[in-house]
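Whiteboard transcription, Tuesday session. T.W. wrote the structure tokens on the left side:
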């Protein structure tokens, strides 16, 4: 054994043999270090254990949990399609809410905790203006003006003084915005639930029945309208930020604030545009959710379901918000309908966060998020 020279570097080798370079010394790739491989192995293990438990369990509990729900899906396909449809509509609306978070996070690197209350505030403003005698569509335009004033105010009063501050400071500032809007909204509009002006906005009502797969599937017309409007809104925003000058400026700001400033991009203008766009998203979301139920401060809790959506899709990805929303929406409905009765219901309130926890363990950057590598 001796040191031999190979292209200017000393390598270990025996006389008369090929010297060992960095390539030959590099360890073989460890497949278990891949999050997807680990998740697949764990899922396969869970499925195998569930099937074994179902065969060995005399009480039938394992069968009811792991086998029977899938048997019901096959035996009653119409109910399965109905559940998938309801989850699809919910998922599209989740994706629309998450889009508001993504836009602000891409522009400032801060999770906007106030997005949920912005949904409520925009919907209450619309309903409140109509109660004062303003025609419905004029009320929509005036509400957009209110959201623009809110965006300018947040940029001037909150964001501009906190430029170059740590992200946690900006995050806490969004908490302040949240509780200010809650207090201001309650003082102006009151705390009682209100009825969304769906009929005045020409949103359809009623249902459509289909006889398919040996059963009947009922589609609410407001759900169809909500899915179409939300999908068009998401597609329009994705195209706008992908192919317009403002969209390119937003991507530059998301990559580096200093680099964006060096090429003449105004952070202040970008922040106003992004917050106003998030306000538009909040208004559309408030109209759709309010038309399906009512307009109240409880909508803020629904809007926070965007957090597990973002964890699944990635905080900086618009396609991730769409895919994450669909996974959470459909997963919630399936869990509530097929597994909820086994544990007394309530699955829909916590399943999204459980799914998000699993993704944090195996793929913390999300499905479409960028993997962060920091030099130590």
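and on the right, the sequence the group agreed on:
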């Amino acid at each position: 054994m001796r040191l031999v020279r190979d292209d200017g570097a000393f390598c270990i080798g025996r006389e008369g043999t090929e010297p060992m370079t960095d390539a030959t010394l590099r360890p073989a790739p460890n497949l278990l270090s891949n999050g997807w491989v680990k998740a697949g192995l764990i899922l396969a293990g869970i499925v195998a254990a569930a099937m074994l438990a179902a065969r060995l369990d005399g009480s039938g509990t394992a069968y009811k949990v792991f086998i029977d729900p899938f048997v019901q899906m096959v035996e009653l396909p119409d109910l399965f399609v109905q559940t998938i449809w309801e989850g699809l509509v919910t998922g599209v609306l989740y994706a629309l809410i998450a889009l508001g978070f993504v836009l602000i996070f891409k522009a400032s690197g801060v999770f906007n905790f106030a997005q949920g209350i912005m949904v409520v505030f925009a919907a209450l403003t619309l309903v409140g203006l109509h109660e004062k005698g303003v025609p419905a569509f004029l009320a929509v335009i005036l509400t957009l003006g209110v959201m623009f004033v809110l965006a300018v105010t947040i940029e001037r009063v909150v964001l501009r003084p906190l430029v170059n501050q740590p992200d946690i400071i900006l995050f806490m500032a969004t908490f302040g915005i949240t509780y200010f809007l809650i207090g201001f909204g309650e003082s102006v509009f009151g705390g009682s639930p209100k009825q969304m002006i769906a009929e005045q906005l020409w949103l359809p009502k009623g249902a459509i029945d289909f006889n398919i797969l040996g059963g009947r599937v009922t589609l609410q017309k407001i759900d169809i309208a909500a899915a179409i409007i939300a999908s068009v809104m998401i597609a329009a925003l994705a195209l706008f930020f992908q192919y317009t000058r403002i969209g390119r400026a937003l991507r530059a700001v998301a990559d580096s604030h200093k680099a964006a400033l060096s090429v003449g991009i105004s952070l202040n203008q970008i922040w106003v545009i992004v917050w106003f766009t998030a306000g538009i998203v909040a208004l559309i979301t408030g109209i759709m959710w309010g038309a399906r139920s009512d307009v109240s401060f409880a909508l803020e809790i629904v809007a926070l379901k965007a957090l597990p959506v973002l964890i699944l899709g990635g905080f900086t990805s618009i396609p991730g918000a769409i895919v994450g929303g669909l996974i959470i929406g459909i997963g919630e409905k399936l869990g509530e309908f097929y597994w909820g009765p086994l544990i007394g219901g309530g699955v829909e309130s916590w399943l999204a966060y459980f799914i998000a926890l699993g993704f944090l363990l195996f793929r913390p950057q999300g499905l479409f998020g960028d993997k962060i590598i920091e030099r130590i």
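Someone added at the bottom: Confidence is low (pLDDT under 50) at residues 1-10.
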